[in-house]
Amino acid sequence: MRQESVCQLLAAPVARALLNCALDMEKLQEIRLRAGRPMLVRYSGQEFAVCLSGKLSANAADGYCVTEEDLKETLEYVSGYSLYAFDEEVRQGFLTVPGGHRVGLAGHAVMEGGQVRSLRHISSLNIRLSHQVRGCADPLLPWLYEKEEVCSTLLLSPPGGGKTTLLRDLIRQVSDGGRYGAGQTVGVVDERSELAGSYLGVPQNDLGMRTDVLDGCRKPEGMRMLLRSMSPEVIAVDELGNETDGEAIEHAFTCGCRLLATVHSASMEEGKRKPFLQKLLRAKAFERYVVLAGRGKPGMVREICDQDGAVLYKENAQ
To answer: Tell me, what's the pLDDT at 90?
Structure first.
């Protein structure tokens, strides 16, 4: 990922401050812009303020103070000067830009019928940068294959724990095949365009030679569409979140598909408290549960369990 490509999304003063720091873009995870507040970044797992002098500071008060004009200009760039064309995304609180980078939004919520109709007076932006880390799923593969077939797997992690990056590489390796099994046809429902980073329908990230991507579609409809049209052997989705997602996963499971998915959860115990996940656990829709360590250690595996809850691997237990 090039620094210039990210800076093209930012208002000129913000971009200059970032360029002056000459950062290693593979270590840059988030850029946070808040009106009237210092510009902050998450870099190598730690938070720093971005100074106009070209340095990062652990003291937030040292950072460049973001203006309302900076936010307005950045919004114009990330939306291609057509924010109104992203009404549905804005309603959900984020935009996805070329490369799979995700821009979170906060401001004044306009309500209608008890639901968010739109956001106005946007005062905060969180640019989460997409990273394709080839090979990051390598340590997992021996635990996720049986008889040269990938096991249906659920990755559990709190936000920022690296589950999307890990899922992206797992999809690529399952699709291409390797020492643990032959390549399989994978159908990806990329609701937020984070996995494939599609631009004009074409994936910008490498998800493998046998992967079909349905971009920008809700997971329940997308899974059913792929099952009808593309005959996938494996279906992959990011961030299961509700009963409807769970029902679609159950349907795919009964159709004989292997499943790769993620969910926000800091532990198996927390996951079991989610009603939709309870049903999937009882149905044994997943054969492997991989718990990640969390934000401080992105991508690090804390625990791997099988469909019966037996621990196959535990950090520092070997």
So the answer is: 80
